TrEMBL record:
Superkingdom: Bacteria
Pfam families associated with the record: Polysacc_deac_1
BP terms from Gene Ontology: carbohydrate metabolic process
Gene3D superfamilies reported for this sequence: Glycoside hydrolase/deacetylase
Protein name, entry field: Polysaccharide deacetylase
Family matches, as SUPFAM superfamilies: Glycoside hydrolase/deacetylase (SSF88713)
UniProt GO MF annotations: hydrolase activity, acting on carbon-nitrogen (but not peptide) bonds
Limits of the NodB homology domain: 1-258
């Protein structure tokens, strides 16, 4: 079982990451954290309100309370603060406690909303800023990346490989693979998120805050790739009790937790992953489209 922690905002970084690190220390669980390093421009995501299904998802999942009113003003009425500089000790704390730490984005909203229109120069700049600040803070170059909103392109895969990344998590699916691009296959291991996220299941199929942990734990299957994406803003704050129960249920079953880098090493030692493409499609409970592993049927992600 792999826990992938995406951190999108300043509040998720300052408060959510601390809470998650404390909980994982208590449970003796290691995870892979992916940090947004640059400006928190969360307010600019409000334009997604016009996207079909977005407002309904926000209402179901309680996103407004997860992010808070100040966060939703960043990039609109308030300047977007540089997230990593708000608590520069946190990445080193995570590393010292044995977690894997990588890059989520420089500007999370910009990557999420504009990647598919982004030229290579701007793409390389976004990655260079994030990786460079990470190196300034920690003293080393990160080797892993997880994309905002599961948004990825061939050009982005190539830029990540060129910058030195060797394993990523940028799609939704059921198995690890090497990305097959238009004219080549990259030796860059893609490890997709396999489980639905908490905000995708809440308010659907009878799932509530009180039974979400059991619902998610029941989706974890032995001998399968199990990757769960959680968020500093959600499970690190208001929904921490759901995560705590989820972890305990899995620990009681004897489930072994591993970081994404360990998942990658294990997969590469046991088998030769296939070369697969990806496509953009929708998943139940989430507004907008995202990158899906070739051959992955969205219904597999919905119990």
């Amino acid at each position: 079982m792999t826990l992938k922690v995406d951190v999108d905002t300043k509040v998720g970084f300052i408060h959510g990451v601390r809470n998650l690190a404390d909980l994982m220390a208590e449970k003796k669980v290691k995870a892979s954290y992916f940090l947004s390093m640059g400006p928190d421009n969360s307010g600019r995501a409000l334009k997604r309100l016009f996207r079909p299904g977005f407002l309904a998802k926000q209402m179901r999942s309680g996103a407004a309370s997860a992010y808070g009113p100040v966060t939703m003003l960043y990039g609109l009425l308030l300047p977007g603060p540089i997230i990593a500089k708000a608590a520069p000790n946190l990445p080193n704390r995570l590393i010292n406690e044995g977690h894997e730490v990588g890059i989520h984005a420089w500007d999370h909203v910009f990557w999420h909303d504009c990647l598919r229109r982004m030229g290579r120069a701007r793409l390389s700049r976004e990655l260079g800023l994030a990786f460079g600040l990470f190196e300034d803070i920690t003293g080393f170059w990160p080797g892993t990346f997880a994309s905002p909103g599961w948004q990825i392109t061939d050009q982005a895969f190539e830029a990540l490989f060129d910058i030195g990344v060797r394993h990523v998590s940028t799609t939704r699916g059921v198995r690890a693979f090497f990305p097959r691009l238009k004219d080549k296959t990259l030796p860059l291991l893609e490890i997709p998120t396999t489980l639905p996220t908490l905000d995708e299941i809440l308010g659907r199929n009878g799932v509530t805050r009180n039974n979400a942990a059991k619902y998610l734990a029941d989706l974890v299957k032995p001998e399968k790739l199990n990757v769960f994406t959680l968020h500093g803003e959600v499970e690190g704050r208001e929904m921490a009790f759901v995560l705590k129960e989820f972890l305990q249920r899995l620990l009681d079953r004897g489930v072994v937790f591993e970081r994404l880098i360990e998942t990658a090493d294990r997969i590469l030692s046991e088998t030769t992953p296939p070369a697969l493409g990806y496509y953009y499609g929708e998943l139940p409970g989430r507004a907008g489209d995202m990158a899906l592993e070739q051959g992955f049927a969205p219904r597999e992600n919905d119990k």
